[in-house]
Amino acid sequence: MDMELQPVVLEGYRQVLDTAVTQEETLESIVPDTYPDIARIVTAVGRVYVRDCEPGEGTVRLTGTIQTTVFYIPEGEQLPKTLEVAIPFQCLKDHPSLRTTTVVQSSATVTFADARAINPRKVVARAEIMVELTAYELAAKEVNTDVQGGPEGSLEKRLLPARDIVITGVVEKPFLFSDLVRMPPSKGEVQQLLLCRPQLDVMEGKLIGRKLVVKGSVKLYLVYQCGDSVTSTCFELPFSQVLDVEQEAGDQGSQVDVRLKSVDCRLREGELEVTVEACAQAVVRMEREVTLLSDVYSVSCRLDAQRSPCPLCTLAETGGTSQSVRHFYQTSVEAKQVLDSFAVVKEVTQRSGEHGNELAAQIQVHMLYLDEEGELRGATDSVLVTCPYQIPEGCQRKVHCRAVGDLTAAAVSGGIDLRFELEFRWLTTKEEELLCVSSVASTGDYEGPCSRPSLVIRRVDAGEQLWDVAKACGATIQDICTANELASETVPEGMILLIPTKRV
Description:
By secondary structure, the protein is mainly beta. It contains 2 helices and 20 strands. It has a 3-stranded antiparallel beta sheet, with no helix packed on it. Strands 2-3-4 form a 3-stranded antiparallel beta sheet, with no helix packed on it. A 3-stranded antiparallel beta sheet has the order 7-12-11, with no helix packed on it. It is elongated, with a radius of gyration of 32 Å. The chain starts with a strand and ends with a strand. 31% of the residues are buried.
Protein backbone atom coordinates (compact mmCIF):
# COMPACT_ATOMS: atom_id res chain seq x y z
CA MET A 1 0.00 0.00 0.00
CA ASP A 2 1.68 3.20 -1.20
CA MET A 3 1.34 6.15 1.16
CA GLU A 4 2.80 9.63 0.93
CA LEU A 5 3.17 12.11 3.76
CA GLN A 6 2.25 15.74 3.08
CA PRO A 7 4.95 17.96 4.64
CA VAL A 8 4.92 21.72 5.30
CA VAL A 9 8.05 23.76 6.01
CA LEU A 10 7.69 26.26 8.86
CA GLU A 11 10.25 29.08 8.83
CA GLY A 12 11.11 31.55 11.55
CA TYR A 13 13.87 32.90 13.75
CA ARG A 14 14.94 31.08 16.87
CA GLN A 15 16.78 32.68 19.75
CA VAL A 16 20.25 31.19 20.22
CA LEU A 17 21.71 33.59 22.78
CA ASP A 18 20.36 35.88 25.48
CA THR A 19 22.96 37.17 27.90
CA ALA A 20 24.36 40.19 29.71
CA VAL A 21 28.06 40.98 29.99
CA THR A 22 29.52 43.39 32.55
CA GLN A 23 32.97 44.83 32.11
CA GLU A 24 35.08 47.72 33.35
CA GLU A 25 37.15 50.09 31.25
CA THR A 26 39.74 52.69 32.27
CA LEU A 27 41.70 55.32 30.39
CA GLU A 28 44.34 57.89 31.33
CA SER A 29 43.81 61.30 29.75
CA ILE A 30 45.94 64.43 29.58
CA VAL A 31 44.27 67.75 30.34
CA PRO A 32 44.46 69.86 27.14
CA ASP A 33 46.76 72.87 27.21
CA THR A 34 43.83 75.25 26.93
CA TYR A 35 42.26 73.84 30.12
CA PRO A 36 43.25 74.99 33.64
CA ASP A 37 44.94 72.68 36.15
CA ILE A 38 42.83 70.33 38.27
CA ALA A 39 42.44 71.21 41.93
CA ARG A 40 39.65 68.74 42.81
CA ILE A 41 37.55 66.25 40.88
CA VAL A 42 33.86 66.45 41.73
CA THR A 43 32.29 63.54 39.87
CA ALA A 44 32.03 61.80 36.50
CA VAL A 45 29.01 61.02 34.32
CA GLY A 46 29.19 58.33 31.64
CA ARG A 47 27.19 57.58 28.50
CA VAL A 48 27.82 54.58 26.28
CA TYR A 49 27.43 54.50 22.50
CA VAL A 50 27.51 51.19 20.61
CA ARG A 51 28.95 51.67 17.13
CA ASP A 52 29.17 48.19 15.61
CA CYS A 53 27.96 44.69 16.43
CA GLU A 54 29.62 42.01 14.31
CA PRO A 55 28.73 38.30 14.61
CA GLY A 56 31.23 35.66 13.52
CA GLU A 57 31.75 31.93 13.75
CA GLY A 58 31.31 31.14 17.44
CA THR A 59 31.63 34.75 18.61
CA VAL A 60 30.20 38.27 18.50
CA ARG A 61 32.19 41.48 18.81
CA LEU A 62 30.74 44.75 20.02
CA THR A 63 32.64 48.04 19.74
CA GLY A 64 31.81 51.52 20.90
CA THR A 65 32.73 54.43 23.13
CA ILE A 66 32.06 55.35 26.73
CA GLN A 67 31.81 59.13 26.74
CA THR A 68 32.78 60.26 30.23
CA THR A 69 32.28 63.83 31.42
CA VAL A 70 34.63 64.64 34.31
CA PHE A 71 33.55 67.57 36.50
CA TYR A 72 36.45 69.29 38.27
CA ILE A 73 37.28 72.51 40.11
CA PRO A 74 40.29 74.31 38.60
CA GLU A 75 43.08 75.63 40.79
CA GLY A 76 42.33 79.12 42.06
CA GLU A 77 38.74 79.09 40.72
CA GLN A 78 35.27 78.46 42.18
CA LEU A 79 33.22 77.50 39.14
CA PRO A 80 33.57 73.99 37.71
CA LYS A 81 34.98 72.90 34.37
CA THR A 82 34.37 69.65 32.52
CA LEU A 83 36.75 67.39 30.65
CA GLU A 84 35.45 64.93 28.05
CA VAL A 85 37.18 61.54 28.07
CA ALA A 86 36.20 59.10 25.30
CA ILE A 87 36.97 55.53 26.43
CA PRO A 88 36.89 53.04 23.55
CA PHE A 89 35.66 49.57 24.43
CA GLN A 90 35.35 46.17 22.84
CA CYS A 91 33.09 43.43 24.15
CA LEU A 92 33.57 39.84 23.00
CA LYS A 93 31.17 36.99 23.69
CA ASP A 94 31.80 33.42 22.58
CA HIS A 95 28.98 30.97 21.98
CA PRO A 96 28.91 27.83 19.80
CA SER A 97 25.56 28.74 18.20
CA LEU A 98 26.81 32.04 16.76
CA ARG A 99 27.41 32.27 13.01
CA THR A 100 28.15 34.99 10.51
CA THR A 101 24.48 34.73 9.48
CA THR A 102 23.28 35.32 13.05
CA VAL A 103 21.32 38.51 13.67
CA VAL A 104 22.45 40.12 16.94
CA GLN A 105 20.67 42.92 18.78
CA SER A 106 22.48 44.78 21.53
CA SER A 107 22.16 47.53 24.10
CA ALA A 108 24.57 48.96 26.66
CA THR A 109 24.33 50.97 29.87
CA VAL A 110 26.88 52.70 32.05
CA THR A 111 26.21 51.45 35.58
CA PHE A 112 29.05 53.36 37.25
CA ALA A 113 31.59 56.05 36.34
CA ASP A 114 34.23 57.95 38.27
CA ALA A 115 37.59 59.69 37.81
CA ARG A 116 40.65 60.55 39.88
CA ALA A 117 43.50 62.97 39.31
CA ILE A 118 47.02 61.55 39.00
CA ASN A 119 48.36 65.09 38.93
CA PRO A 120 46.93 68.51 37.97
CA ARG A 121 47.37 67.65 34.26
CA LYS A 122 46.35 63.99 34.12
CA VAL A 123 43.23 62.02 35.09
CA VAL A 124 42.17 58.38 35.08
CA ALA A 125 38.55 57.82 34.06
CA ARG A 126 36.84 54.55 34.94
CA ALA A 127 33.47 53.19 33.86
CA GLU A 128 31.53 49.97 34.30
CA ILE A 129 29.14 48.99 31.52
CA MET A 130 26.51 46.29 31.16
CA VAL A 131 26.05 44.98 27.62
CA GLU A 132 22.92 42.98 26.74
CA LEU A 133 23.12 40.67 23.73
CA THR A 134 20.33 38.72 22.05
CA ALA A 135 21.06 36.62 18.96
CA TYR A 136 18.66 35.04 16.45
CA GLU A 137 19.18 32.48 13.70
CA LEU A 138 16.81 31.85 10.80
CA ALA A 139 15.67 28.23 10.98
CA ALA A 140 13.20 25.91 9.27
CA LYS A 141 11.38 22.85 10.54
CA GLU A 142 9.35 20.36 8.52
CA VAL A 143 6.10 18.93 9.87
CA ASN A 144 3.70 16.51 8.27
CA THR A 145 0.12 17.74 8.03
CA ASP A 146 -1.54 14.80 6.22
CA VAL A 147 -0.98 11.44 4.53
CA GLN A 148 -2.41 10.22 1.25
CA GLY A 149 -2.60 6.80 -0.39
CA GLY A 150 -3.73 3.28 0.35
CA PRO A 151 -7.10 1.69 -0.49
CA GLU A 152 -9.93 4.20 -0.43
CA GLY A 153 -11.38 4.56 3.05
CA SER A 154 -8.71 2.46 4.74
CA LEU A 155 -6.72 5.19 6.52
CA GLU A 156 -7.84 6.68 9.80
CA LYS A 157 -6.03 9.95 10.50
CA ARG A 158 -5.84 12.06 13.62
CA LEU A 159 -5.32 15.71 12.65
CA LEU A 160 -4.42 18.07 15.46
CA PRO A 161 -4.99 21.84 15.01
CA ALA A 162 -2.37 23.89 16.86
CA ARG A 163 -1.09 27.46 17.09
CA ASP A 164 2.54 28.42 16.70
CA ILE A 165 3.82 31.88 17.61
CA VAL A 166 6.96 32.47 15.62
CA ILE A 167 9.50 35.26 15.24
CA THR A 168 9.02 36.33 11.63
CA GLY A 169 11.38 39.29 11.61
CA VAL A 170 14.46 40.63 13.38
CA VAL A 171 15.00 44.05 11.86
CA GLU A 172 16.98 47.18 12.54
CA LYS A 173 17.24 50.58 10.95
CA PRO A 174 19.93 53.21 11.59
CA PHE A 175 18.75 56.81 11.42
CA LEU A 176 20.03 60.31 11.97
CA PHE A 177 18.28 63.53 12.91
CA SER A 178 19.32 67.03 13.89
CA ASP A 179 17.67 69.90 15.67
CA LEU A 180 18.42 73.43 16.83
CA VAL A 181 17.55 74.10 20.46
CA ARG A 182 17.03 77.69 21.57
CA MET A 183 17.51 78.37 25.24
CA PRO A 184 14.56 80.22 26.82
CA PRO A 185 15.39 83.79 27.90
CA SER A 186 14.27 82.99 31.46
CA LYS A 187 17.14 80.49 31.80
CA GLY A 188 19.79 83.09 31.11
CA GLU A 189 22.60 83.07 28.61
CA VAL A 190 24.68 79.90 28.37
CA GLN A 191 28.31 80.80 28.83
CA GLN A 192 29.67 77.28 28.95
CA LEU A 193 27.98 73.92 28.41
CA LEU A 194 29.18 71.51 31.11
CA LEU A 195 27.08 68.42 30.48
CA CYS A 196 24.67 67.15 27.83
CA ARG A 197 23.19 63.87 29.06
CA PRO A 198 20.78 62.14 26.65
CA GLN A 199 17.96 59.85 27.75
CA LEU A 200 16.10 57.84 25.13
CA ASP A 201 12.46 56.81 25.58
CA VAL A 202 10.45 54.60 23.20
CA MET A 203 6.76 55.38 23.62
CA GLU A 204 5.19 53.28 20.88
CA GLY A 205 5.92 50.44 18.50
CA LYS A 206 2.82 49.78 16.38
CA LEU A 207 2.65 47.14 13.67
CA ILE A 208 0.46 48.07 10.67
CA GLY A 209 0.60 45.40 7.99
CA ARG A 210 4.25 45.12 7.01
CA LYS A 211 5.20 48.46 8.58
CA LEU A 212 6.35 48.90 12.16
CA VAL A 213 5.90 52.51 13.32
CA VAL A 214 8.28 53.47 16.12
CA LYS A 215 7.79 56.69 18.08
CA GLY A 216 9.95 58.05 20.87
CA SER A 217 11.97 60.97 22.12
CA VAL A 218 15.49 61.92 23.16
CA LYS A 219 15.56 64.04 26.29
CA LEU A 220 18.63 66.23 26.74
CA TYR A 221 19.50 67.10 30.32
CA LEU A 222 21.83 70.11 30.26
CA VAL A 223 24.08 71.45 33.01
CA TYR A 224 25.73 74.77 32.12
CA GLN A 225 27.37 77.88 33.47
CA CYS A 226 25.20 80.99 33.48
CA GLY A 227 26.95 84.09 34.79
CA ASP A 228 28.56 83.28 38.14
CA SER A 229 26.41 80.22 38.81
CA VAL A 230 25.72 76.72 37.52
CA THR A 231 22.19 75.75 36.52
CA SER A 232 20.35 73.09 34.49
CA THR A 233 17.46 72.55 32.12
CA CYS A 234 15.93 69.84 29.89
CA PHE A 235 14.76 69.63 26.28
CA GLU A 236 12.80 66.89 24.53
CA LEU A 237 13.38 65.99 20.87
CA PRO A 238 10.67 63.67 19.42
CA PHE A 239 11.40 61.20 16.62
CA SER A 240 9.54 58.60 14.58
CA GLN A 241 10.71 55.86 12.26
CA VAL A 242 9.06 53.25 10.02
CA LEU A 243 10.66 49.80 9.82
CA ASP A 244 9.87 47.29 7.08
CA VAL A 245 9.08 43.78 8.31
CA GLU A 246 9.39 40.64 6.23
CA GLN A 247 5.71 39.69 6.19
CA GLU A 248 2.36 41.00 7.34
CA ALA A 249 1.57 39.81 10.84
CA GLY A 250 -0.57 40.46 13.86
CA ASP A 251 1.14 41.85 16.94
CA GLN A 252 2.07 38.95 19.24
CA GLY A 253 4.48 40.29 21.82
CA SER A 254 6.63 42.28 19.39
CA GLN A 255 9.36 44.24 21.13
CA VAL A 256 11.00 47.47 20.05
CA ASP A 257 14.17 49.13 21.27
CA VAL A 258 16.31 52.04 20.11
CA ARG A 259 19.98 52.38 20.96
CA LEU A 260 22.02 55.56 20.67
CA LYS A 261 25.13 55.47 18.51
CA SER A 262 26.20 59.06 19.17
CA VAL A 263 24.89 62.39 20.41
CA ASP A 264 26.69 65.59 19.46
CA CYS A 265 25.77 68.82 21.27
CA ARG A 266 27.50 72.05 20.24
CA LEU A 267 26.87 75.51 21.62
CA ARG A 268 26.87 78.19 18.91
CA GLU A 269 25.92 81.80 19.66
CA GLY A 270 23.54 80.89 22.47
CA GLU A 271 21.87 78.05 20.53
CA LEU A 272 22.44 74.33 20.87
CA GLU A 273 23.00 72.31 17.71
CA VAL A 274 22.08 68.69 18.38
CA THR A 275 22.79 65.71 16.12
CA VAL A 276 21.54 62.29 17.18
CA GLU A 277 22.62 59.03 15.54
CA ALA A 278 20.60 56.01 16.60
CA CYS A 279 19.50 52.53 15.55
CA ALA A 280 15.95 51.19 15.88
CA GLN A 281 15.72 47.46 16.64
CA ALA A 282 12.65 45.26 16.58
CA VAL A 283 11.64 41.63 17.00
CA VAL A 284 8.30 40.83 15.32
CA ARG A 285 6.16 37.82 16.22
CA MET A 286 3.25 36.27 14.34
CA GLU A 287 0.68 33.64 15.26
CA ARG A 288 0.06 30.98 12.63
CA GLU A 289 -2.33 28.05 12.55
CA VAL A 290 -0.74 24.65 12.02
CA THR A 291 -2.42 21.27 11.47
CA LEU A 292 -0.32 18.30 12.56
CA LEU A 293 -0.76 14.68 11.54
CA SER A 294 -0.52 13.37 15.09
CA ASP A 295 -1.36 9.69 14.36
CA VAL A 296 -2.53 7.31 11.60
CA TYR A 297 -3.57 3.68 11.26
CA SER A 298 -5.28 1.48 8.68
CA VAL A 299 -8.33 -0.72 9.03
CA SER A 300 -7.10 -2.99 6.21
CA CYS A 301 -3.45 -3.62 7.10
CA ARG A 302 -0.84 -3.16 9.77
CA LEU A 303 1.03 0.18 9.78
CA ASP A 304 4.21 1.28 11.45
CA ALA A 305 3.72 4.99 12.16
CA GLN A 306 6.69 6.67 13.84
CA ARG A 307 6.01 9.87 15.76
CA SER A 308 8.48 12.58 16.74
CA PRO A 309 8.15 15.62 19.01
CA CYS A 310 7.38 18.87 17.18
CA PRO A 311 8.30 21.95 19.25
CA LEU A 312 5.82 24.82 19.00
CA CYS A 313 5.53 28.14 20.82
CA THR A 314 1.91 28.20 21.98
CA LEU A 315 2.06 31.38 24.06
CA ALA A 316 3.80 34.76 23.72
CA GLU A 317 2.39 37.57 25.82
CA THR A 318 3.79 40.84 27.09
CA GLY A 319 2.99 42.13 30.54
CA GLY A 320 4.44 44.06 33.40
CA THR A 321 4.00 46.31 36.37
CA SER A 322 5.31 49.63 37.68
CA GLN A 323 6.65 50.60 41.08
CA SER A 324 6.74 54.11 42.50
CA VAL A 325 10.03 54.51 44.33
CA ARG A 326 10.90 57.08 46.97
CA HIS A 327 14.39 57.22 48.44
CA PHE A 328 16.15 59.59 50.81
CA TYR A 329 19.87 60.21 50.35
CA GLN A 330 21.61 61.70 53.38
CA THR A 331 24.25 64.26 52.43
CA SER A 332 27.29 65.17 54.52
CA VAL A 333 26.47 68.87 54.03
CA GLU A 334 23.16 70.57 53.37
CA ALA A 335 22.10 70.46 49.71
CA LYS A 336 20.75 73.64 48.15
CA GLN A 337 19.86 72.64 44.58
CA VAL A 338 19.93 69.40 42.57
CA LEU A 339 21.22 70.06 39.05
CA ASP A 340 20.98 66.57 37.57
CA SER A 341 19.89 63.13 38.74
CA PHE A 342 19.15 59.81 37.08
CA ALA A 343 18.67 56.14 37.92
CA VAL A 344 20.30 53.14 36.24
CA VAL A 345 19.24 49.49 36.62
CA LYS A 346 22.35 47.51 37.50
CA GLU A 347 20.91 44.04 38.08
CA VAL A 348 17.56 42.24 38.25
CA THR A 349 17.23 38.90 40.04
CA GLN A 350 14.43 36.58 41.05
CA ARG A 351 14.29 35.47 44.67
CA SER A 352 11.99 34.10 47.37
CA GLY A 353 10.58 36.84 49.56
CA GLU A 354 8.41 37.00 52.65
CA HIS A 355 5.21 36.81 50.59
CA GLY A 356 6.39 34.51 47.79
CA ASN A 357 8.55 34.97 44.72
CA GLU A 358 9.63 38.49 43.85
CA LEU A 359 11.82 40.46 41.48
CA ALA A 360 14.65 42.41 43.06
CA ALA A 361 16.14 45.29 41.07
CA GLN A 362 19.42 46.87 42.17
CA ILE A 363 19.30 50.55 41.17
CA GLN A 364 22.18 53.01 41.04
CA VAL A 365 21.07 56.61 41.62
CA HIS A 366 23.40 59.42 40.50
CA MET A 367 23.13 63.02 41.72
CA LEU A 368 24.85 66.29 40.89
CA TYR A 369 23.99 69.09 43.30
CA LEU A 370 25.07 72.40 44.86
CA ASP A 371 25.53 72.72 48.61
CA GLU A 372 24.59 75.80 50.66
CA GLU A 373 27.94 77.40 49.86
CA GLY A 374 27.30 76.99 46.13
CA GLU A 375 29.95 74.29 45.83
CA LEU A 376 29.34 71.56 43.24
CA ARG A 377 29.13 68.00 44.57
CA GLY A 378 28.41 64.56 43.15
CA ALA A 379 26.97 61.46 44.82
CA THR A 380 25.94 57.89 44.03
CA ASP A 381 23.66 55.65 46.06
CA SER A 382 22.12 52.17 45.73
CA VAL A 383 18.41 51.42 45.98
CA LEU A 384 16.81 47.96 46.12
CA VAL A 385 13.33 47.75 44.59
CA THR A 386 11.19 44.61 44.79
CA CYS A 387 7.85 43.55 43.32
CA PRO A 388 5.77 40.32 43.48
CA TYR A 389 6.47 37.92 40.66
CA GLN A 390 4.85 34.68 39.54
CA ILE A 391 5.52 32.66 36.38
CA PRO A 392 2.68 30.51 34.98
CA GLU A 393 3.48 26.82 35.14
CA GLY A 394 5.41 25.51 32.15
CA CYS A 395 6.31 29.00 30.89
CA GLN A 396 9.52 30.94 30.47
CA ARG A 397 9.82 34.67 31.01
CA LYS A 398 12.32 37.33 30.02
CA VAL A 399 12.28 40.36 32.30
CA HIS A 400 13.43 43.87 31.46
CA CYS A 401 13.54 46.70 33.98
CA ARG A 402 14.08 50.42 33.50
CA ALA A 403 13.41 53.77 35.12
CA VAL A 404 10.74 55.64 33.15
CA GLY A 405 9.93 59.31 33.03
CA ASP A 406 11.83 61.95 34.95
CA LEU A 407 13.54 61.32 38.25
CA THR A 408 12.45 64.02 40.69
CA ALA A 409 15.15 65.08 43.14
CA ALA A 410 14.60 67.84 45.70
CA ALA A 411 17.02 69.24 48.25
CA VAL A 412 15.46 68.86 51.72
CA SER A 413 16.72 69.16 55.26
CA GLY A 414 19.51 66.63 55.77
CA GLY A 415 19.73 65.37 52.22
CA ILE A 416 18.01 64.78 48.89
CA ASP A 417 14.53 63.36 48.38
CA LEU A 418 14.39 61.14 45.26
CA ARG A 419 11.27 59.91 43.50
CA PHE A 420 11.00 57.91 40.30
CA GLU A 421 8.97 55.27 38.53
CA LEU A 422 10.46 51.84 37.89
CA GLU A 423 8.89 49.69 35.18
CA PHE A 424 9.16 45.91 35.05
CA ARG A 425 8.26 44.54 31.61
CA TRP A 426 8.33 40.91 30.57
CA LEU A 427 7.68 38.56 27.69
CA THR A 428 6.08 35.26 28.69
CA THR A 429 6.44 32.31 26.32
CA LYS A 430 5.46 28.67 26.47
CA GLU A 431 7.11 25.96 24.42
CA GLU A 432 5.29 22.67 23.93
CA GLU A 433 6.29 19.48 22.13
CA LEU A 434 3.41 17.91 20.22
CA LEU A 435 3.79 14.48 18.65
CA CYS A 436 3.70 14.44 14.86
CA VAL A 437 3.95 11.49 12.44
CA SER A 438 7.45 11.49 10.96
CA SER A 439 7.24 8.27 8.91
CA VAL A 440 4.65 5.64 8.03
CA ALA A 441 4.99 2.24 6.34
CA SER A 442 2.89 -0.85 5.85
CA THR A 443 4.10 -3.95 7.72
CA GLY A 444 1.77 -6.39 5.95
CA ASP A 445 -1.86 -7.28 5.53
CA TYR A 446 -4.00 -8.84 8.20
CA GLU A 447 -3.84 -12.65 7.79
CA GLY A 448 -7.41 -12.98 6.53
CA PRO A 449 -11.06 -12.26 7.26
CA CYS A 450 -11.18 -14.97 9.92
CA SER A 451 -8.14 -13.55 11.73
CA ARG A 452 -10.30 -10.75 13.13
CA PRO A 453 -13.79 -11.23 14.54
CA SER A 454 -16.49 -8.98 13.14
CA LEU A 455 -17.41 -7.78 16.64
CA VAL A 456 -15.26 -7.24 19.71
CA ILE A 457 -16.32 -6.48 23.26
CA ARG A 458 -13.72 -4.31 24.97
CA ARG A 459 -13.35 -2.41 28.24
CA VAL A 460 -11.94 1.15 28.21
CA ASP A 461 -8.71 1.19 30.24
CA ALA A 462 -7.41 4.06 32.36
CA GLY A 463 -6.10 6.97 30.28
CA GLU A 464 -7.48 5.63 27.01
CA GLN A 465 -9.34 7.76 24.51
CA LEU A 466 -11.73 6.51 21.90
CA TRP A 467 -8.99 6.94 19.27
CA ASP A 468 -6.75 4.52 21.21
CA VAL A 469 -9.51 1.91 21.39
CA ALA A 470 -10.34 2.20 17.69
CA LYS A 471 -6.69 1.99 16.67
CA ALA A 472 -6.05 -1.08 18.83
CA CYS A 473 -9.00 -2.91 17.34
CA GLY A 474 -8.63 -1.78 13.71
CA ALA A 475 -12.01 -0.07 13.80
CA THR A 476 -13.24 3.45 13.14
CA ILE A 477 -14.44 5.94 15.73
CA GLN A 478 -17.60 6.56 13.75
CA ASP A 479 -18.53 2.86 13.73
CA ILE A 480 -17.89 2.56 17.50
CA CYS A 481 -20.03 5.64 18.23
CA THR A 482 -22.85 4.27 16.05
CA ALA A 483 -22.74 0.79 17.60
CA ASN A 484 -22.76 2.15 21.17
CA GLU A 485 -25.03 5.17 20.56
CA LEU A 486 -22.34 7.58 21.77
CA ALA A 487 -23.04 11.30 21.38
CA SER A 488 -19.35 12.27 21.70
CA GLU A 489 -15.89 10.75 21.60
CA THR A 490 -15.50 11.10 25.38
CA VAL A 491 -15.86 7.71 27.08
CA PRO A 492 -15.49 7.01 30.82
CA GLU A 493 -12.92 4.60 32.20
CA GLY A 494 -14.30 1.07 32.60
CA MET A 495 -17.06 1.40 29.98
CA ILE A 496 -17.77 -1.76 27.96
CA LEU A 497 -17.85 -1.08 24.23
CA LEU A 498 -19.10 -3.08 21.26
CA ILE A 499 -16.52 -2.68 18.54
CA PRO A 500 -17.44 -3.64 14.97
CA THR A 501 -14.35 -4.46 12.96
CA LYS A 502 -13.95 -2.44 9.80
CA ARG A 503 -13.02 -4.49 6.73
CA VAL A 504 -11.90 -2.97 3.45
